[in-house]
Amino acid sequence: MKNKKAISFVAVLVISLFVLAACSDTGGSEEASSGDKKTVEFMHLWPEGSSAQHHKIVNDIISGFEEENPDISINLEVLSNEQYKDKIKVLSTSDKLPDVGMTWAAGYMEPYVEGDMYASLDDVINKDDFVSGTTEAFSVDGTTYGLPLELNTSYIFYNKAIFEEYGLEEPQTLEELKDIVATLNENDVTPIALGNKDAWTGSMWYMYLADRLSGNEDVLTNAINRENSFEDPALVQAAEEVQNLVGADAFVEGFNGLADEEAKSMFMAEQAAMYLIATWDLPNYTTNEDVSQEFRDNVGYFKFPTVGGNGNTNSYIGGTGVGLFVAENSDVKEEAKKFASYLVEQWGERAVTDVGVIPGTKVDAESMDLPEMYNNVLNDLNTAENITLYADVQMNAEDAQVHLDAIQALFGGEITPEEFAKRNEDALAGEE
Amino acid sequence: MRHIGYILLYTVLAFVAVFQIFPIIWLVLFSLKSNQEIFAGNPFALPTDPKWDNYLKVFEGGVGTYFWNSVWITVVATGLTILIASMATYTITRMHWKFSSLVLGIIMIGLMIPIHSALIPLYNMFLNVHLIDNPLSIIITYTTYNLPITVMILLGFYTTIPREIEEAAIIDGSSIHRMFFQIILPLSAPILSTTVIINMIYNWNEFVFVNTFISSDAFKTLTVGIQNFIGQYMTDWGAIGATLVISVLPIIIAFLFFSEKIMEGITASAVKG
Amino acid sequence: MNKIMSNKWIIFLYTFPALFLIGVLIVVPLILSGYFGLMDWDGISAMEFIGLENYMVALQDAKFWESAFHSFLLALFSALSLILYLIVALILASKIKGANLLRKIYLIPMLLSSVAIAQLWIKVYNPTNGMLNSVLIFFGVENPPNWLADPDIALYAIFIPIIWQYAGFYILIYYAALKNIPQSLIEAAKIDGASPVQIAMKMKIPLIMNVIKVTIVLSVVGSLKYFDLIYVMTGGGPNGASEVMASYMYKLAFESYDFGYGSAIGFLLLIITLIVTIIIRKLTATKEEIQY
Predict the structure, then answer these.
(1) Pfam families of this UniProt entry (chain A) (predicted)?
(2) CB C178 within 8 A of CB C210
(3) How far apart (Å, rounded) are the C-alpha atoms in residues C249 and C261?
(4) What's the pLDDT score for residue A30?
(5) pLDDT of B50 strictly over 90
(6) pLDDT tens digits for range B123-135
(7) How confident is the model at residue A290 (pLDDT cuts 50, 70, 90)?
(8) Are A161 and A292 in contact (CB under 8 A)?
(9) Residue of C1, C9, C119, C126 for testing the chain B interface, max B β-carbons within 10 Å
(10) Size of interface A-B (CB pairs under 8 A)
(11) What percent of chain C is predicted at pLDDT more than 90?
């Protein structure tokens, strides 16, 4: 008896695994074609817990869209940033991208475009609706593959209370910034919070220095798109300036081991006087109720100063954040495009007023009731003469990795400015 | 002299115990803080204004389904792993056949695979058999990926079981199945409960496979609760802390329970031996 | 006896489920990853067969060998730390008062997920607000190290949480093994006047030698493919100072879109681990046991 029982038990176990595997064939993917209703799969990276406002607006927009288009339903999946990137990567190897999803510009989307994964959006995009430069970042050879959702510029945010205490003023030049650093150091105040574990933060410092020093806002872009060498004297000199700042103890202790998030928290806990970051952080300094009112009132910002009389302070480091793509092999491509353009269109205004995100679409700031800092930033944007896209976004993924590693080594004093330039140059030249 | 030795021993033991208990206290404090306090304050400072709403946020995020999924997926996968691993270890260590070392070799190779190497091929395989977004894919994967380590742990113990026990059983006319289920499994109860604990911890905390193979909220597990609080530019660490506390509690309870089982198993086998 | 113990049908029945699952879900992906390693593939566009080029490049890739060296160091430290765990388990398994409670407390960190452990140790190592440096400054150390930012220290700093994370796992296994030793043997030795240290060295450890060998393999293999905390705490940085094989592979495949090369690295990782395991088994093999 026992014998048989055991055999049948094990047999059932093995068989059931097979049967279950076979049976489930009929489940899953088939509902897309059932009935007249078409399902558009949409993946985004704004989870409810961390991005409540983003999440809610997107849900509102989805219901609005489904109401207007009763024959289309949207199937939503939300992941966090890292997990989103990893999953997209896995999905793309099996050519199973969602119908609509989020993408980053330039270097990130290049392989997807080359691999024919993204559909051309030329038929649904009206470039006049977008801030100039944003759609270009999502274009390859004149065809647009992404609808930009965000636009950011970066500033040095500072703690007014600390500045006041030591009689400091917003610097106009790098020399003045260095004086501020010296004064703060004398008083045992950490001058600048920097989380260089995520080396893109240090890269922003480097990029600004290069931009100002050279007085040529295209100097870095030209090096990246190979019209110029990365060993350009201005690019080497900017690396030298980085090391000068490090040598002057401008940055927080141990910055190479700190995440941007840790640096941000130091700034927000008033343990550091300054912090260079992009405008996606504006809610923290204006509307975010989780941050104390006192601190929010204490935050000011200034444009990156000029260097040695060179540079245009109306030139910014920044650019588009995420945008929407439509999958080329989608079964419901038309519906997906319809949804993507609907979402971008609806997103614009609500993004500023409800979320505090500056959208890629043009918005009329005058008509909205916004915190002062937003108005100022939007005005700056109107007078902006140049926005240089983050170097690690411009570069393809492989070169970006080299660049970011080199940035860490440069800030850590492991390599000389010349070696820094050479490493970047070698990586960029390698693919030609 | 002996006394001083014991005092010294207990001092060291107590010191280590305090050190080991710290993480839980830290985690609870962590879960009641805001981001600024977490990153810029002293990790063991009491939160100035305990943020109980971190927990509220977690419950609002709908942990109910996730929790249930975590429980049943963990239980099923752990049960399957233990059973399948025990059977395989039994034949490898106790039975006589030519290919036992080859089979063990294959199982050991399973130890060596980095999961990121396996992710893309696995996704593709599950896609082909339509198991993507089906909890079965997770169960099968968890079961399989814990098999090698479970077999390895059992191996050392199965070899120590005296041959005489089996010989006696066979003389009594017992079949192999009976011997396995009624003698060997109960004899290995202490180590089985150890492997149960280890399997449970792994399955409970796993998130790479779930995130990759599952897309419907209905099948996701507790670890995605953590994902819910990681934003594009900002992460709500306090709420992540609360999620971690909520998810570690059942494991602690289960662990304490199984520790008792270990003791019981030992006493039981001691009586027999 | 022998006839029953070599019943082919039963061997098949008992071994097949494990073999089938591992074959399909682990061995096949491994072979595929070796195959992808022969391709120039970004994971998106069409694959292009390039033969052994990726493997050739990897063999000359200084970054790969550096990360392999880091992995080896981790394996070495993990294996050495087993001695410590064994001592703890020996103490806990002896009949001292409160052993039961202590054992439970000692295993607590093992229950935490890597996410929690990473956050904890990031706080420990924070250069300005961290626990470690606060203590060092309290004891008058000037300029305490920037643990995770200093390329000379970061790797070793990150070994500590990794080793600590697994302490409970090995203590648990050793404890179960020690409790499995028949009490009568130990009592007999005590009556013969053997000291606790003698009993441990001459009886307990030899009796659980099989288990110790298994744990050596587990810790070395686990270390060579280790990924979690490294990725979260330093991301392999600064500038590659704490890169290990698995994190390097992940970066290549998932961040640099060089899936072919990443797969090749993953496959080499397997080969290296396999060789190391065989060497360990040969070194620890004794005559009377079956050769695994």
Answers:
(1) SBP_bac_1
(2) no
(3) 8
(4) 41
(5) no
(6) 999 999 999 999 9
(7) confident
(8) no
(9) C119
(10) 134
(11) 47
**Record: contact C27-B110, CB cut-off 8 A:** yes
Residues C210-237 pLDDT 10s: 899 999 999 999 999 999 899 888 888 7
On whether residue A370 sits in a domain, the answer given is no
Nearest-by-CA chain B residue for C266: B117
Write the DSSP assignment of A125-184 as a string of letters. --GGGB-TTHHHHTEETTEE--EE--EEEEEEEEEHHHHHHTT----SBHHHHHHHHHHH
* Terminal-to-terminal C-alpha distance of chain A: 74
User: Six-digit token pair at C102?
Assistant: 């202590």
Residue of C nearest to B246 (CA): C112
A133 and A267 inside one domain: no
Using a CB–CB cutoff of 8 Å, tell me whether C24 touches chain B: yes
Q: Does B211 touch chain C (CB under 8 A)?
A: no
Shared domain for A182 and A234, answered yes or no, is yes
With a cut of 70, say whether residue B265 has pLDDT above it. no
Residues A312 and A329 in one domain: no
Pairing of the two strands A147-148 and A323-326: antiparallel
- What subunits make at least 3 CB pairs under 8 angstroms with A? B, C
The residues with which A143 forms a beta bridge, in sequence order, are: A140
- Whether B251 and chain A come into contact, CB under 8 Å, resolves to no
Q: Are residues A264 and A406 in the same domain?
A: yes
Cα separations (Å) of B166 from A2, A13, B22, B163?
A: 17, 26, 47, 5
Of B117, B156, B262, the CB nearest to C266: B117
**Within a domain: A12:** no
If one counts the domains in chain A, the total is 2
pLDDT confidence of residue B271: 45
> Are A48 and B156 contacting, i.e. CB atoms less than 8 angstroms apart?
no
Tokens of C89: 């388990």
Q: Which CATH class is domain C62-284?
A: mainly alpha
Domains, chain B, ordered by start: 2-272 (1.10.3720.10)
Find the CATH number of the domain harbouring A332: 3.40.190.10
With respect to residue A115, please indicate whether it lies within any of the assigned structural domains.
Answer: yes
Evaluate the omega torsion of the peptide bond into residue C238 and state whether it is cis, within 30 degrees of 0: yes
Classify A302 as helix, strand or coil: strand
List all residues of chain B from 80 to 119 with a beta carbon under 8 Å from chain A. Answer: 80, 83-84, 87, 119
CA distance C109 to C95: 24
In this structure, the answer to whether residues A106 and A169 fall within a common structural domain is: no
Q: Which residue has the tokens 């007085």?
A: A215
The reply to whether A144 and A263 lie within a common domain is: no
Indicate if A120 and A142 belong to the same structural domain. Answer: yes
Q: Is A87 exposed, middle or buried (0-12, 13-18, 19+ CB in 10 A)?
A: buried
Integer CA distances (angstroms), A121 to A2, B31, B170, C264, in order: 67, 44, 75, 36
Condensed to tens digits (0 to 9), the pLDDT of residues B117-160 reads 899 999 999 999 999 999 999 999 999 999 999 999 998 888 87
Answer yes or no: is A244 within a domain: yes
Q: Do residue B94 and residue C116 have CB atoms under 8 angstroms apart?
A: no
Q: Is the pLDDT of residue A19 over 60?
A: no
Contact flag B129-A3 (C-beta cutoff 8 Å):
no
A24 vs B62, residue with greater confidence: B62
Residues in chain B with CB shorter than 8 Å from the CB of C43 are 120
CA–CA distance, C133 with C246 (Å, rounded to integer): 30
- Assigned token pair, C67: 């990360």
Name residue A70's amino acid.
Answer: P
Regarding whether A426 and A285 lie in a shared domain, the answer is: yes
Give the pairing of strands A315-320 and A386-389: parallel
**For the segment B197-253, what is each residue's pLDDT rounded down to a tens digit?**
889 999 999 988 998 899 888 888 888 777 778 877 778 888 889 988 988 888 888
B contact residues 111-170, partner C, Cβ 8 Å cutoff: 111-118, 120-122, 125, 140-141, 143-145, 147-149, 151-153, 155-157, 159-160, 166-167, 170
